[in-house]
Amino acid sequence: MLDLNSRILVFGGGGTIGSSTALHLARKGYRNIRVLDVYPIPSAQSAGNDLNKIMGTSLRNPVDRQLSLEAEDAWSNDPTFTAYYHRSGRLDCCGSPDGIEDLENTIAKLKDAGLGHTVEWLDTEAQIIRRVPQLAGSNIQGWKGIFFEQGGWLAAAKAIDLVGRELVRHGVQFSFGDSGTFQSLILSNDGKTCLGATTKDGTRYIADRVVLASGAWTPSLVDLEDQCCSKAWVYAHMQLTSEEIKEYAGCPVVYNEDLGFFFEPDEHGIIKVCDEFPGFTRYKMHQPFGTPEPKLVSVPRSHARHPTDTYPDASETTIKKAIAAFLPKFKDKELFNRAMCWCADTADANLLICEHPRWKVCIFLSQDFQDA
C-alpha cells in the first residue's frame, strides 16, 4: 500500500492521462510525485496538445460510463477545467444504413442507461438543420441524427497547460528532455517487481509506483503483449473570415461516422476538420523493454521532431470529401496545419488500465483520442 510519502513516477506526464493522474494524486496529498516527459507540459507529443476534443458520455461499458460522468462533473464544476468546456452541443449523424443502425443502437443504450431524456432523435433533414442551422445547404439528404444538448468540446491544450501550473503549485517535481525520456524499468533480482525506471540520460529513479501513461508511445517503450497498438488519425485547419466566424460561432460539434467531424471556430477563427477511418499504423522491427528480441511494433513518428510532416495524400481526399458534405461553402478554402495525431488503440477500443502482469507496481494507462 502507498502512503502520502511514497515515491511515484508518472511517465507521459505532459499529456492528458499522465497529467491528470499526477493532478489527482497531488490533490489527494501525495507529496513525492515526479512527472516525466520528453517535452514540458503540455507535451508536444501528446494527442491532447490540440485545439479541441469532443466531450461526451461513453456507454461502451459501465466503467467507461462512470469515468465519463465523473469527467463531465469535473469539466462542469472544477475551477481548473470549467473555462475550457464549451457546451455547444453535439450532433452525431449519418446517412448510410449501417451508420443509421449504429445511431439507433446508441439511442437504445442511452435509454437503457436512463439517459434517454438527455438527447433528441432527429429523423429528418429539417430537424437536423433546426438544431444545427449551419448545415443548411449541406449534402445531408437521408441523414438521421442524435442531438446531445449537454455535449460540446474541450480546449484540450489550454486545459493541460493549466493542469501543469497547478502541479507546480502542489510541489510536483518535473523531468523533461533526456532526463524525462523512458529507457527501461529497474526490476528486482527475481524480475517480478518494478523498483523504478531509467531514463535516456542514464538517470535512475527509484520509486514505489511507476505509471506509464505515454499514450501512443507506450507500446514501443514496454512490452504490452499486443494489448495496445499505436495508430494515427489526421486533421487539418481552415481559417474563417470575421463574418464566417460570426456565422459559425456556437455551432455544435458535428460528427458523422462515415465522413468525419468538425468544431466551431476557436477565438482565432480556426476550424479543425477530421476525417473518420480506422487509423494509420507504422510497423517496424523494434524491441520494447521486456521483449527477448525485436518484434513488429507500430511506432509513432513524432510531429514535434518532424514538423514538416503532414499526412498521406489519401487523407487530403477524405478530408475534402467531409468538407464538401457538411461545409460545402468552404470546399475551396485553403487547408493548413495538416497533421497526424498518434493515439493508443486497443482491439475493442476499451481503455487499458492495469498493473503489468509480469511486474508488480508498474501501472499502465492507455488512452484513445480518436477525435484527434
From TrEMBL:
Keywords: FAD, Flavoprotein, Oxidoreductase. The keyword Transit peptide does not apply. InterPro entries: FAD-dep_OxRdtase, FAD/NAD-bd_sf, MTOX. It holds the Pfam family DAO. Its cofactor is FAD. Residues 13-357 form the FAD dependent oxidoreductase domain. Belongs to the MSOX/MTOX family. This is FAD dependent oxidoreductase. It comes from Lentinula lateritia.
